[in-house]
Amino acid sequence: MAKKEISYSDAISEIEEIVNIIENGELNVDEISEKIKRVSLLIKSCQKKLHETQVEIEKILEKIDE
Description:
By secondary structure, the protein is an all-alpha fold. It has one domain (about 10-65). About 80% of the residues lie in helices and about 0% in strands. Helix 1 (about 10-25) runs antiparallel to helix 2 (about 30-65). The protein is elongated and about 55 Å long. It starts with 7 loop residues before the first helix and ends with a helix.
């Protein structure tokens, strides 16, 4: 079964939450490593969504110019 994609806003919220936890020193070294891996995946997801949105917008603008 495929994983459900997280929304952009949910990903950003989770990244902010993890950053706050790390900044407050609430994690041990092992937990930090796992959280950093999660943030990395979330950032990749956000980058993908932003790229897809940019492509969509460019297509719309091209249609307007026709």
